[in-house]
Design a protein that fits this description.
By secondary structure, the chain is α+β, with helices and mostly antiparallel strands. 16% of the residues lie in helices and 38% in strands. The longest helix has 25 residues.
């Protein structure tokens, strides 16, 4: 009976190999998350590209928004985070006229991006404009408070 094969002899080796592969994949995923820009707070995938540039006295955020009008976009500055979102509706008419159309296709598209700014900005002087499908947001840096403040000790 000793010559008879045992079906579970290799299962321990298989489970060990599987465990090592899962640990390797988990370490790789953690490294990718750690290397992701600390500035990008967006969740999920987005097809909208965003650039952040430091131009000395201001930050300039450039976002690709092809087909979006300024009314379709929303900007929100909260603390040191800038949120950019947009939503638009496409309608495509196929056959028929306006009143008695046989088929009309509608599609809604949206995006949302959020980015942490490296330094505080002056919220009152932020400027934004859309030109040829590119949203440009200029965020002047807040002047450093050079005035000394006395702190009471209790």
């Amino acid at each position: 009976m000793a010559d008879r094969p045992r079906p579970f002899d290799g299962i321990d080796d298989l489970l060990d190999r599987l465990n090592r592969q899962i640990e390797t994949a988990a370490r790789s995923w953690e490294t990718q998350v750690d290397n992701r820009s600390k500035l990008d707070l967006s969740t999920g995938g987005s097809t909208t590209s965003l650039d952040l540039a430091d131009e000395g006295d201001e930050f300039v955020v450039t976002v690709d928004v092809p087909g979006y009008e300024s009314d379709d976009l929303e900007l929100r500055l909260s603390g040191e985070s800038l949120a950019v979102s947009g939503q638009r509706e496409h309608s495509q008419e196929i056959g028929g006229d306006e009143e008695n159309y046989i088929r009309r296709e509608r599609k809604t598209e949206s995006f949302s991006r959020q980015i942490r700014l490296p330094e505080p900005v002056d919220a009152d002087t932020v400027q934004a404009s859309v030109n040829n499908g590119i949203l440009t947001v200029r965020l002047p840096k807040r002047e450093a408070d050079e005035e000394a403040h006395s702190i009471d000790i209790d």
